[in-house]
Amino acid sequence: MATVTQEPSDRGRVRLVVLFGGQSAEHDVSCVTAKHVVGAADPARYHLEPVGITRDGDWVRAEDARAAIEQGAAALPDALAADGSAIDHEAAIVPASAEETVVVFPLLHGPMGEDGTVQGLLEQAGVPYVGSGVLGSAVAMDKAVAKDVLAANGIPQARWLAFRTSDLDGLPLDRIEAELGLPCFVKPANLGSSVGVSKAHDRDELVEALELAFSYDEWVVVEEAIVGREIELAVLGNTDLRVSVPGEVAPAAEFYDYEDKYLDGRAELIIPADLPPEVAETFQDLARRAYRALRAEGMARVDFLYEEGGRGPLLNEINTIPGFTPISMYPKLWAASGLPYDELIDELVDLALERHERRTKTRRTSRTPRSGTEEGR
């Protein structure tokens, strides 16, 4: 794949490649998210280029979305469709010349998009992209690994266990009940949007929940059920971080599941959350620490469970490509913190360019051995 180096002085109007769809169970969520990003991006600043990835992994030009963009945001459908004429990766993402600036905005929730796979492709192409790099994306995507890293950094969490299909000799029901109790939550380790997540109240439900989670992933995380409030914060930045006001999710269902997030929209999002100032600052500090511990960059939504009168804030998970739908928490948190949706997109693009420039300089330096090294003697 050809690589074209882009200098910040050559920016001009950015070709913003909105990459959506994908092969995960969150394909439909991605298509909805992409519609709203495309509809909010400033056409005077960006040449918008929606590129879909089908469920089979083919890259396509989203012709219907392109036609709708030309007619204006009001013409966009409720969700972009990841179909159209086939296009190879290089044609989709690599600048046509050194004078053209391309930034890729991956909106690929879940595996094969949010887990470092696409980020690695973009690194190989030398193209700036929104969000975390390969390591940060991969670690944050895998809930089991992320919990280990967060624990090593002293971030408080609920009790959990992780299991792999190949490690199991029958379902570990006795161990789960003894160490975590019932009810408990069962989750695929590498999915988001609450896909495949269940709350098990008894042993029969636990068996069903494990079977469901293992149908999505070979790694599964089981967590103790926390009686507490769901608090979420948005983080923005690469090296200098900004953290939003905390928000609270009041689920309409027993927990904040897929239907509540994307279909019914009945969950209440309370922004800012009703918290004492010192407690809000504690959440913000923990969000910042967790973001750095997992090597996140660009953006992430950091989710907590708040056990008032008990252990306090307990980190639940970090999402490095949070949703951008009208009922999504991440853009709402920033709007409440003084950063509107369109300006949020601008900042994310600027952060992508800043990160790319910084890392490009580091790579150039690393190619020249310093005097005194074995190679330079």
Task: Write structural notes for this entry.
35% of the residues lie in helices and 21% in strands. The protein contains 12 helices and 14 strands. 43% of the residues are buried. Strand 2 and strand 3 form a beta hairpin. With 377 residues, the chain is of the alpha+beta class. It is globular. The longest helix has 26 residues, at 341-366. Strands 9, 10, 11, 12, 13 and 14 form a 6-stranded antiparallel beta sheet that branches. Residues 2-10 have low confidence and may be disordered.
How would you briefly describe this protein structure?
The chain is built from twelve helices and 14 strands. It has 377 residues and is α+β, with helices and mostly antiparallel strands.
What's the count of strands?
A: 14
Residue share in β-strands? 15-25%
What form results from the Cα inertia axes? globular
Helix content: 25-40%
Spell the H/E element sequence: EHEEHHEHHHEHEEHEEEEHEHEEHH
Q: How much is the radius of gyration in Å?
A: 21 Å
Mean pLDDT: 88
State the end-to-end distance: 34 Å
> Low-confidence parts, pLDDT < 50 over ≥5 residues?
2-10
Q: What is the helix tally?
A: 12
Sheet with the most strands, sense and barrel status: 6 strands, antiparallel
Query: What structural class do you assign from the helix and strand content?
Result: alpha+beta
Topology:
Layout: E1 14-21, H1 27-40, E2 46-53, E3 59-61, H2 63-71, H3 89-93, E4 102-106, H4 117-125, H5 134-141, H6 143-152, E5 160-164, H7 173-179, E6 184-188, E7 198-200, H8 203-216, E8 219-224, E9 229-237, E10 242-243, E11 247-250, H9 258-263, E12 268-270, H10 277-293, E13 298-307, E14 312-319, H11 329-336, H12 341-366
Parallel strand pairs: 1-2, 1-4
Antiparallel strand pairs: 2-3, 5-8, 6-7, 6-8, 9-10, 9-11, 9-13, 11-12, 13-14
